[in-house]
Predict the 3D structure of the following.
Amino acid sequence: MVEYNFTNNWFKSVAKDYWDQLIPRMRPIKILEIGSFEGASACYLIEKLAIDREIEIHCVDTWEGGIEHQPNGGAQADMSTVYSRFKQNIQVALDRVNDKANVYIYQGPSDFWLSKFLAENKRNYFDFIYVDGSHQAPDVLCDAVLGFRLLRIGGIMAFDDYLWYEVLPSGKDPIRCPKPAIDAFTNLYFRKTKILEAPLYQLYVQKLSD
């Protein structure tokens, strides 16, 4: 059997244990992933969900990395090869489920693609949205607000890296971490969402109404 090629264990160490409980229970069919990197979470969803039925996963990423991946950033990643590994890993997952998953790949900024989905009448379309793209607070807030409109009532939106922050010489910068944006979203939408119990490094909300 061909194996996956992942250069890190971020998904396995942070999300997998909780997803082992959540995903079989909710069984989403239409999934939007904002930030795919090497495809670890998408491959997990394909293997878990596409065994006995067809699903669709929409993957949005620039595959250019964020500010933290730039030459002076703190994270180290060779972004030139990440996209090729993503495609290879997705193919491995599809082979394992006999191509029962429809994977749609959108390379570019999430605000462009999510706005395009809304223009294409995908409001209330997705069962599960995973927000794991840019870690900059303004970008995260944009992903959350647009994603909320794309999420169906009863669907779940998951935010990765809730407590992540970039290590900078000057200390923490509240604009360069997701938490302020996620907090702003949950405060503004508290009548329309329910926060679910989950490990604190991630935050999960269920949409209750439009």
In short: The radius of gyration is 16 Å. The chain has a mean pLDDT of 94.
